[in-house]
Design a protein that fits this description.
transcription, mainly alpha, 2 domains, disordered N terminus, DNA-binding, transcription regulation, Tetracycline Repressor, domain 2, Arc Repressor Mutant, subunit A, Homeodomain-like_sf
Length: 202
């Protein structure tokens, strides 16, 4: 399979920006490759050359939105994860974790909602949604297990369940975008709720 050259990098970025705009406004199912090409200002064949198909565009958009860059560094190897785990105090770990997660949700939240909306009618998108949810759960469990080493009798699975709700795209969208919460208020609420669930001393 052909791979994109360095010259295709600007086109790749334009395509991802265009896809994000269209997926999160008109919806994944209603967005065509042609529409993405027009929005990006590139030829249709360029879109096919760089990505191959629409599902690959969506997958790449999720990856870049979650990471915030194109570096091939897994989430669990990101600096913020290391900083959270290295924090000596449980509350500091939660603050680092929640702050980074909120920043991720700022980038990827609208895309995740578009993926969820399309998953019911597209088996491939459903698989992508399931894989993304599983990834989020894995990251949460890793961090809650690290927190359990600092807090006696912490119920890791219960904290994971609560974290999936508090740090899900639905809660983030509802509170920050629909209800107008400030990012700092959202982060404080999530930290406090997780601290209570984990039994972290105040």
């Amino acid at each position: 399979m052909a791979t994109a050259s360095d010259d295709s990098t600007p086109a790749r970025r334009r395509i991802l920006v265009a896809a994000r705009t269209l997926f999160t406004t008109t919806g994944y199912a209603s967005t065509t490759i042609k529409a993405i090409a027009v929005e990006a200002g590139v030829a249709v064949q360029t879109v096919y050359f760089v990505f191959g198909n629409k599902r690959s565009i969506l997958s790449a958009l999720l990856d870049v939105s979650i990471a915030g860059d194109d570096d091939p560094v897994p989430t669990l190897e990101r600096q913020w994860v290391a900083d959270a785990i290295a924090a000596p105090e449980p509350l500091e770990q939660l603050r680092i974790h929640v702050h980074a997660s909120r920043q991720v949700l700022d980038r990827v939240g609208p895309v995740l909602l578009a993926v969820r909306a399309a998953a019911g009618a597209d088996a491939e998108v459903a698989q992508l949604w399931a894989a993304t949810c599983a990834h989020h759960e894995t990251v949460l469990r890793h961090l809650m297990a690290a927190l359990a080493a600092k807090v006696d009798a912490l119920d890791v699975e219960r904290c994971v369940d609560i974290g999936l709700v508090l740090l899900g795209p639905e809660s983030h969208d509802l509170l920050l975008h629909e209800r107008g919460w400030a990012a700092e208020d959202y982060e404080r609420w999530v930290v406090e709720a997780l601290a209570v669930a984990a039994g972290v001393p105040g």
